């Protein structure tokens, strides 16, 4: 089974804390994802989003402590729908989007990789170190571009795990 953690930039005056509206926000044609990603209107992390969170936070546990390092992936305000089996939505308001963007802009990829590689590589095997490093570098670049644009435009960020 594939699952994707999607992050979408949304004008703050359009965001509704309603599970039905948020679900419709993520009802999109897969064909349009490339265009949205190219314009930094959305970013998608396949399967390894918890590892990407760990990459930024340096921790295997996933609490949102409100620190900037917790914001890019899992941080934000949780909005739950009526169905308990459906993952909740997470919303970052513009001030937190700015904080996440500043964190991603200030932090050096090499520093993050040095701190996290020891825990991230072993489950995959040392032979995959180069591939993993490139994957995390690609995620980092995508998140930096996405959050920079969202911060510049004063947008909120809405996140959801699609199974």
TrEMBL record:
Gene3D superfamilies: YfbM-like super family. This is DUF1877 family protein. It comes from Wenjunlia tyrosinilytica.
